[in-house]
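Q: How would the structure tokens look for this protein?
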Amino acid sequence: MLARPTLAKPPGKDQDDLSSPKGQARPIDKRFLLRMDGQVKTSFDTKEPAVTAAAAIKKAFPIVVVTVVDTEQGTTETISSH
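A: Here is the predicted structure in token form.
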């Protein structure tokens, strides 16, 4: 049976460079987060524009689960299609 080669980190790379891939996480700037199917898409300073944007997305794509998350209070509001 053939032996598999062992995996080794590339030479010259520090462990810190390999810990988190760049571009994978979006920074959370504002209080209200707009999530689609569990993925954060954007953030808003106030609740009204977040809910308005979420309702427009839900109207265009009724199958998608759209939620607005308040990061300070820890609440999540699911947007319905009607």
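Helices lie at 15-19, 47-60.

The first strand starts at residue 32 and ends at 36.

Upvote if useful.
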